[in-house]
Amino acid sequence: MWAPIEAFEGPTESQRSYLDEDDMSAPGNAGFDRRTGDPETDFALFTIGKYALSGEKQERRLFAACLPRTIAALKTQAGEYFIGLVEAMLEDETEVAMETLDRLPESVEKWVKHAEGYKDLVEKLFPLLGQALYEPNETLARKAADAYGKLIGLLTQEDRGTVALTQLLLIAHEEEKEQAKILAIRLLNESAPAFGRGLSEQFLSSELIALADDSSEAVRRAVASSMSGIFRTVKPPIAHSKLLPILDHLSKDSKISVRRALVEALPDLAQTCANPQGLIGVFAQLLKDKNKAIKQLAAQKAGPLAVAFAGMGGLPEEVMKSFVEQAVGSQTEECALACAQYLPAVVLALGPGHWSDISKSFLSLANSAHKAARKTVAACLHELAKAVGPATTDKDLVPVFANMTGKSEVEEIKYVALTHFADFLMQVSPEKRTSFSELISWMAMPRPNWRFRELLAKQLVPLAVLFDVDSVRLELWPSSLRLLTDPVAVVYLPAAQGIGALSTRLLRDTEDMREEITDLLSSYSSNVSCLKRQLFVHMAGQAVSDISVFKEVYEEAFLRCVKDPIATVRLLCAEIVRKWPGLFPTLLEDLRRDCDSEVCRTALSDDQEANWLATGLLLVWHTQYWSEGLQFQAETGQMTCLKGDSLLDSSGFPLWASS
Hints:
659 residues, mainly alpha, two-stranded antiparallel sheet, 71% helix
């Protein structure tokens, strides 16, 4: 597989020397036989001779990559060279031709601005690209089709019909060029908006009728998958009278691949079809297909179709009934999984008022025998709760969540459901939340699988405000203390932040825990272990959101940590101080003068940090200027020696770099 290459940036010194010479007819530079006086144009002419005519394939490909820039540099002379260059490069080796087609739309945009450019586009380039659609190399032909589709937009409305549409229709009816016909059909569909309603109604709808009866299975398959653009463009009566019969005809095609392509295209068609009834008939026909695989695939499209129709203003009863039937009576894991994946989108599109229509599907999927379907429902319970509201959540979703996190469910499903535990509880009424307090204790229990403890630790902060103070004191606080002493780092680090949030809640709402909390904070802030002191800083970083509690309980110990002998402790303090600069103005200045470079850098503002890194002063700090002493100037964002000499020269360049 060939890889993209970079364009050249400009002439080298030797090339500039050559361009300055009077004699421009040196060997190997054919086509560059005169000077224009414009350096850009002269260099463009030089590259044509140097690269376009090179015997090295890689150099010709380099020229193709630079084609837009070259054409822009040729200016008024672009028309003299462009068509000949493109024609030669399209006949070149595959890699060169592909690179040319990739750059062609951008090049043409620059070329048509010059005299005769548009005329040559119509009379020469479009016929050239039309011939490229017949290319035996399928990849090359597809790239030609991509370029063709992008260039249609450069034509006038009249020429889109007389040039592009006429040419594509001729290709679409070629008898022996199947690949070209397929590309033409796809281009007709994609370009229907550019052709406009008039041409689409007059020609495209009629042509599709003929192509839907083509003897080639691949052509009929292309028609089945290439109609959404035309549906979107024509008026609803035309779509109903001409296009829907084509879909109905294809739904009864003798070849499975054609019917499969139609099934795959149904959701896109639903988004563009103004009259859903005809499309629903096609869908119903496919649901009763004689091939089991087609029936199952159609059943899996009930969800996407429901979302598409609901997004257009109303969900037809037939589609709703089909979705419910597929969800309730799913015989295969694939069908059940497809329904579960689209369940949140269907509920969100319908709104909470239609929950009664879909609740049976939800309950069936939540209790499905297929684990993949249950796992998908577990993963989206919090989103369903947001969509249906607290009342419905309490009534229908809470029991399902309880079952999925109960003893009888496998751990994989429990883990997925508990991943968004706090998000789900936000949609549950306060009265119902207390029923999950025992689940918190279960998650914090020691077990070989520490992932559940990690889930709880990471959700302690939002959980701190979701439960009443008694539940926080009796369930969350003991569980968080257990997590704080966990041997796994990804558990005890977020648990420390949770302790900060929980302690703030308890100190604010009750006096019963004050002594226990202050003793805990004291034991961690003054512990001989630097890890324990780091955990205290994590607690303080979360508690600082409540300023009154922070100043009363945390501030004194936090100020000691700012001057801790271990740099990693001070580094965490610097992160907090930088986040809350208004609370710690003097601490910020102290940390910016810290003896550790990382602490100092962390305490800087974003602009100051960028200035410091850009001038390379991190290296200076550790090397030649430390012996003289350094001082950070907050107002300028620069580092200076204590004796007053700047570490930057007059041009702003670091002195150490030139010494």
